[in-house]
Specification:
Helix content is 48%, strand content 17%. Strands 1, 2, 3, 4 and 5 form a five-stranded parallel beta sheet that branches. α2 runs parallel beside α5.
């Protein structure tokens, strides 16, 4: 479910069931050509499909953080994660399709971080779906992910 699917009247009814926020991170810098920015957004959309479709009703996708620059990017992602938790989400899951962000996102304060590049999804989609399911189930069951 996307943030735009929720309105003020329905949120109170949904809130007990929607405990997980997806925070998409595009990771563009502003140096991209328009077609490259389009590709980055399409890749992120494809990665989010692995969460939004099978876990509809449990996860809510927030607007993407598009520009992530260096160390300030990590701080920015962490700030947004903290704000989302403060607003009532039990879990925040960061999702990106940008391979350059894999290390940065692994150091966020999100409960989980996934970097799902187009190559990875092309080569091992069933394995990635299984990995996502396993990690989410452990998270929701309160098991330590370490």
């Amino acid at each position: 479910m996307k943030f735009s699917d929720v309105n003020e009247k329905t949120w109170d009814d949904l809130r007990p069931y929607v405990d997980t926020c997806l925070l998409p991170v595009t990771g563009i810098t502003g140096a991209e050509q328009p077609w490259e920015a389009t590709c980055a957004l399409e890749d992120l959309r494809d990665a989010l499909d692995l969460f939004e479709i099978p876990y509809k009703g449990r996860v809510l996708t927030y607007p993407a953080l598009h520009y992530v620059l260096g160390d300030s990017g990590l701080e920015h992602v962490n700030t947004v994660c903290a704000q989302l938790k403060a607003s009532g989400f039990a879990f925040v899951v960061v999702v990106s399709a940008n391979a350059d962000l894999a290390d940065l996102l692994s150091h966020t304060q999100a409960d989980l971080a996934f970097t799902l590049t187009p190559d990875l999804l092309t080569e091992s989609l069933p394995a990635e779906k299984k990995r996502i399911a396993e990690k989410l189930m452990l998270l929701w069951a309160g098991k330590n992910q370490e």
